Amino acid sequence: MSIPDPSSLSYHNARLLQESIKSKDLLAGKSVHARIIKYGLRFSVILLNNLMNFYSRTGCFCDARSLFDEMPEKTIFTWNTLLSAYSRQGKMAEATEIFHKIPNRDSVSWSTVITGYNQMGRFESAVKVFDKMTKERVTPTQYTITSVLASCAAIEALDIGRKVHSFAVKFGLSSYVSVVNSLLNMYAKSGDPMMTRVIFDRMEYRNTSSLNVMISLHMQHGRVDLARGQFERMSERDIVTWNSMIAGFNQHGYNLDALCTFGNMLRDSLLIPDKFTLINALSACANLEMLKLGKQIHARIVSTNFDTYGPVGNALISMYAKSGGVQIAQKIVDQTGLSCLDVIGFTCLLDGYVKLGDLKPARQIFDSLRDRDVVAWTAMIVGYLQNGLNNDALELFRLMVREGPKPNNFTLAAMLSVSSSLTSLNHGKQIHASAIRTGQASLVSVNNALITMYARAGSINCARKVFNQVHCFRDIVSWTSMIMALAQHGLGEEALKHFEKLLAAGIKPDHITYVGVLSACTHVGLVDQGQRYYNMMKDFHKIEPTLSHYALMVDLLGRAGLVQEAYDFIEKMPIKPDVITWGSLLSSCKVYKNVELGKVAAERLLLIDPDNSGAYSALANLYSVCGKWEDAAKIRKLMKDGGVKKEQGISWVQIKNKVHVFGAEDGLHPQKDEIYKMITKIWEDIKKMGFVPDTESVLHDLEEEVKEQMLRHHSEKLAIAFALTSTPENTTLRIMKNLRVCNDCHSAIKFISKLSGREIIVRDATRFHHFKDGLCSCRDYW
């Protein structure tokens, strides 16, 4: 029997191993291994290298490592094969250890480590290895250059990318199509569109990858039409082409175009959607709240056995949560596990629960998340804020400061909104201090929130100070926040000066800015200026008035006594007036005792909102003011029979971080005896100073003495009496009230401010009143 030639046997078995790698036939490869042992070919380095390569590429990593350790002789190919196996598995610590043991590292060794780091997303490490490679004067290959350029593109390292470009030119690699495409991609993603265009124009051969980069570049810079044109001219399109278009449309709000492109891809090409295709298609469905189409895409994902863990699962969760399918989104979370839920998926799920008004499941998910970053914390805080759960938001923020990540500008802005809602100056100041400590206080978004917080907490001077500090970085929100703040505090003329400065700076006001401007005119009775600005908004800035603008114009005219003009304005409105518009007219009718128009306003208001207690009360009060006691009694009986309850007036004050709430004739406060003793003394003292109780404010047919007692025990007076007994001398008092302050309380508080030597700031339902030395900032116009 003849013995086969060893060299021909080695060649034959090496070829069989190559075929086994291509077919991924593990059994065939192991049969070859058995023949190698049988014929005593264990000392053929070339054959053993191929065998090790087979094991590493078919997932038998332990066999590859055992073979490597047993090999009597190792070439650079042997080392690089093991190195490549570790890199492909993402075991970069082990790969690095092997790399340092290689006796004579070549360009393949270096390139393998760089590619490994790049594929693992450790882009800075890939760049550092390339830097060491050049210092050791190892000549890079085209594969080295493409890998390191991909890392530069990922971290937008333009300067390093330019150096890599110079190496590519130096070593004659810049003519390779793969290198040129990598350069194109790096410059496009690193923010150098001019160089991207230069390279593209100089390319002798452009393949699909080259054109894909240009589509992405156009989309990145918002040139959607250019991207569309490039796409339509392409004769060959790969999955990256379609994904670039779908993602670009999605990112720029062209959601229908994104879905149409997705549909065209399924219809016109044989390509199978990958995770990027599905993620962007689902995102477009979410943005359009197209639940039915989203379900169809979900059905396709299930039918093709596509992996729903990770990004695709989160895209499904986001789509369902945004499109009204929160329960289905929750089921997907339950199936895939919380470990797969990312911040975007959680945020969308949270938003879905916020819309339902049910934050308990969202908080349970939040508490279960392992890696809660600043975005997750902020999303949960904003969820509480949007649902009016300000105290929960505050508690979670305190927990975040103690145990969580450092708050960012969005967190601080959200918390400042919480402080604004709670009208808590102390909390707001603490968050301001936190912003200063963390270096966030200089950011425009935080400053804008600070302006609003300070204004709503009654500290207009602090709001001014913040506004003045950001004079170089003011945006439209900054100006609008300050104009609104000044308007709320009755400083209409100053608000309008700011508006004129805004116009002089070339900044275009938006509809919210004009709400502030018209509000400023309303609070100080600037009728002519208000009408001029209203016309400027419509005719010059081409802003279509909203219900807020119409209601303010009605309020502006009505407060000035132009009640008929206000009614005529409503009749000419191109849209249906709302409750606020008719309520503004009704309030003016009460002030100016216009019973006929008041009755019309109340009737129209009640047609829109039959259970509106304010309308009944205002009409009853209007009848009472005009001495029509029987008519007033009928309205009150109508309220009672209809089960409509009048909104109770309450006032509150914060002392040492505790909020104390008072109602009229309040007998629940633990210090009630001391409070009533103090208000009685104040009442007597201010009467001696010339204060005359406005018993006409009591709209009931009662004895004068009873009326005066009722006035004395109004909620804001009790709150002030308590605050005077609970704070040091010269402390500014900040009182909040849910309804409009009455005439008697307004007059009394002016006298109290002079008697006590205190500034008293009262925020009622419509504005702030700053009482000091017997005067009010509203100049008795409110």
UniProtKB/TrEMBL annotation:
The organism's place on the tree of life at top rank: Eukaryota
Presence of the UniProt keyword Nucleotide-binding in the record: no
Annotated source species: Hibiscus sabdariffa (roselle)
Gene3D superfamilies: Tetratricopeptide repeat domain
Annotated protein name in UniProt: DYW domain-containing protein
Domain DYW residue range list: 690-782
Family: Belongs to the PPR family. PCMP-H subfamily.
Coiled coil: none
Keywords attached to this entry: Repeat
Pfam families: DYW_deaminase, E_motif, PPR, PPR_2
Leader peptide range in chain numbering: none
PPR repeat ranges, renumbered to this chain: 75-105, 106-140, 207-241, 342-372, 373-407, 475-509, 612-646
